[in-house]
């Protein structure tokens, strides 16, 4: 039987205001979002939901479903991104964060890392000036100031492209027009990353509309300076949730999320009442969860002058090995400080 997934790109182009449109026909935005990222298996989706989405997109149900086409990830060598929510090649990723939580540092680091690869980065500046962009956009290979300028530049480039822009172009509809033009020119080599410098996207039912990947930053991790502060439960990717992931990776992610979910519950008790209120049977869970949380911090090259810590790269294969070791108790002897910002355990 062919593996199937939702045609997120088509849905994104055809239904600009999907949240409102979905609500108008009785479909919950969360359901649509989970179908897009694969949290809900498309094979288990209600027929009326698929028919409703096809109606909104003015297409057939068959056109809304992609069969047998494998998704590929772009390995960033940033542990928490690659492990919990891989970047989908050719897809659209949205960063969900309030101002000051580190989304620009993540973007700067990605642009820095792509410098020595086959990927070309293009940054379309927001419609509003933001002083916090100073020092970030300079890391892009090309910076554009309008959608028309961006289309011309993208058309001139060959090879794989990372395109970064702000939510403001989605609100105006210009980004959807740009994507339509790119599709008409058969330019399918573009991976899009969206940010929202206003921070309003955090409060939306369906941030950015249909996405292949969501990177949601966590206020608690950010407050405790555990960067890149990517939420291990809410961040997700259609690669992870779908059929295109290595089984070992899938199983380890399931185990890690289960551990971290319970650890977070226990931590809320410890913060108020201390360790004495944690049952002995749960102390192992708490301790390993604390270590796993610390392990997913990572020093960035672009922040070396501020932190004094050398940037770290960690291959996906090594991340899987290290996470497995922590889950199996093989890192119980390591302190939390030894695990923070250390890269790999090797």
TrEMBL record:
GO terms for cellular component: proton-transporting ATP synthase complex. It is found in: Membrane. This is ATP synthase A/B type C-terminal domain-containing protein. Belongs to the ATPase alpha/beta chains family. One of its GO terms (molecular function) is ATP binding. InterPro entries: ATP-synt_VA_C, ATPase_a/bsu_AS, ATPase_alpha/beta_chains, ATPase_F1/V1_b/a_C, P-loop_NTPase. Keywords: ATP synthesis, ATP-binding, CF(1), Ion transport, Membrane, Nucleotide-binding, Translocase, Transport. It comes from Psychrobacillus glaciei. The keyword Phosphoprotein does not apply. Residues 246-326 form the ATP synthase A/B type C-terminal domain. It holds the Pfam family ATP-synt_VA_C. The keyword Membrane applies.
């Amino acid at each position: 039987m062919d593996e199937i997934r939702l045609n997120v790109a088509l849905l994104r182009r055809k239904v600009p205001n999907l949240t409102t449109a979905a609500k108008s026909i009785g479909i919950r935005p969360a359901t649509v979002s989970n179908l897009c990222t694969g949290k809900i298996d498309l094979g288990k989706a209600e027929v009326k939901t698929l028919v409703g989405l096809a109606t909104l997109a003015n297409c057939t149900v068959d056109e809304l479903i992609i069969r047998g086409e494998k998704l590929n990830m772009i390995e960033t060598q940033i542990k928490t991104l690659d492990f919990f929510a891989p970047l989908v090649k050719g897809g659209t990723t949205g960063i969900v964060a309030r101002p000051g939580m580190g989304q620009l540092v993540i973007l700067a680091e990605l642009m820095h890392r792509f410098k020595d690869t086959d990927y070309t980065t293009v940054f379309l500046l927001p419609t509003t000036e933001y002083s916090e962009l100073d020092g970030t956009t300079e890391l892009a290979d090309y910076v554009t100031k309008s959608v028309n300028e961006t289309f011309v530049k993208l058309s001139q480039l060959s090879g794989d492209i990372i395109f970064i822009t702000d939510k403001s172009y989605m609100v105006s509809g210009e980004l959807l027009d740009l994507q339509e033009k790119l599709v008409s020119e058969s330019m399918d080599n573009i991976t899009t990353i969206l940010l929202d410098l206003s921070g309003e996207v955090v409060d939306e039912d369906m941030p950015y509309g249909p996405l292949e990947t969501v990177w949601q930053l966590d206020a608690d991790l950010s407050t405790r300076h555990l960067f890149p502060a990517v939420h291990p439960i809410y961040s997700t990717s259609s690669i992870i949730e779908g059929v295109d992931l290595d089984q070992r990776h899938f199983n380890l992610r399931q185990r890690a999320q289960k551990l971290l979910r319970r650890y977070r519950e226990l931590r809320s008790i410890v913060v108020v009442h201390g360790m004495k209120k944690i049952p002995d049977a749960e102390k192992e869970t708490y301790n390993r969860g604390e270590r796993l949380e610390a392990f997913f911090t990572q020093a960035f090259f672009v922040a070396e002058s501020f932190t004094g810590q050398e940037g770290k790269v960690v291959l996906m294969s090594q991340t899987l090995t290290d996470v497995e070791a922590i889950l199996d108790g093989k890192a119980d002897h390591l302190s939390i400080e030894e695990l923070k910002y250390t890269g790999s355990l090797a």
